[in-house]
Write a structure and sequence with these properties.
The protein is α/β, with parallel strands linked by helices. The chain is 44% helix and 13% strand. It is an enzyme of class 3 (hydrolase).
Length: 205
C-alpha cells in the first residue's frame, strides 16, 4: 500500500467529534499483509477482513494496511518512522518471511525486528504490540529453519508482545488456499489468516 495512503488513511479520525475517539491498528508487513495477488486487496486482505469483524462488533478501531510487497525486516526498519506520523494504538508486526526465504542471517532479522519494536515503543509507549509469527520450510536447512522459527517467540517474550505463533496456520502448503506461487494466500486463504490473527487480537481490543 502507498505509504502516504497508509499514513493518511486514518487522519480524519484525529478530528473526530465523537465522544470516543477511534483508535488505529497499524498492520505493518509485507505482501502477506498487502494482499498480493488478490483481486481486491482493499476488501480481501486479512487486515480488511479484520476491519469487518471490528465493525460487526461496533468496536471503535480503524485497521490501517501498511503492507508492502517484498519488504524485509531491514526495509521495514527504514520505513517505520515515516508511518508513525499517524497515531498508533495497536501495532501489528508481520515481517520476516522474506528474510527467511532469502536465507538472511537470523541474527540480522532479530536485530531489525527489535529495532522496529523499539521505534514504535519510543513514539507510542502505550501502544499494544502484536507479532505475527512465520516459519520457513525445512528445505532451507534444518538448523536455519529451527533458528528462524524461534525468532518470533524470542522477540515477543522480550517485548511482552501478543504472539500469533504462525500466521499461515492451516493455509501454508494447501494448494487450494494459495496462489500458483504456493506462497501467497488466495481470498479463501486470507479468510483463514484473518481468523488466525483475530483469535489473538480480539483479546486486546
Amino acid at each position: 500500500m502507498d505509504q502516504k495512503k497508509a499514513a493518511n488513511e486514518a487522519s480524519t479520525q484525529n478530528n473526530s467529534t465523537d465522544k470516543q475517539v477511534t483508535k488505529n491498528i497499524l498492520f505493518f508487513g509485507n505482501s502477506l499483509t498487502a494482499g498480493y495477488g488478490l483481486e481486491d486487496p482493499s476488501s480481501e486482505s486479512f487486515p480488511s477482513l479484520i476491519q469487518e469483524k471490528i465493525d460487526s462488533l461496533k468496536l471503535n478501531y480503524k485497521a490501517i494496511n501498511a503492507g508492502l510487497s517484498g519488504e524485509t525486516t531491514a526495509g521495514g526498519k527504514g520505513r517505520i518512522g515515516w508511518l508513525l506520523r499517524t497515531q498508533v494504538d495497536v501495532f501489528v508486526l508481520e515481517l520476516g518471511a522474506n528474510d527467511g526465504l532469502r536465507g538472511l542471517p537470523v541474527t540480522e532479522t532479530i536485530k531489525n525486528l527489535q529495532s522496529i519494536v523499539d521505534t514504535v515503543k519510543a513514539k507510542y509507549p502505550d501502544a499494544k504490540l502484536v507479532l505475527l509469527g512465520m516459519k520457513v520450510p525445512p528445505n532451507m536447512g534444518g538448523r536455519y529453519a529451527a533458528d528462524f522459527n524461534a525468532v518470533f517467540k524470542t522477540i515477543a517474550d522480550k517485548n511482552s508482545m501478543l504472539l500469533v505463533p504462525f500466521l499461515l496456520e492451516n493455509v501454508a502448503g494447501i494448494p487450494k488456499l494459495n496462489l500458483k506461487d504456493g506462497v501467497h494466500p488466495t481470498a479463501p486463504g486470507q479468510k483463514i489468516v484473518a481468523e488466525n490473527v483475530w483469535k489473538e487480537l480480539k483479546n486486546i481490543l
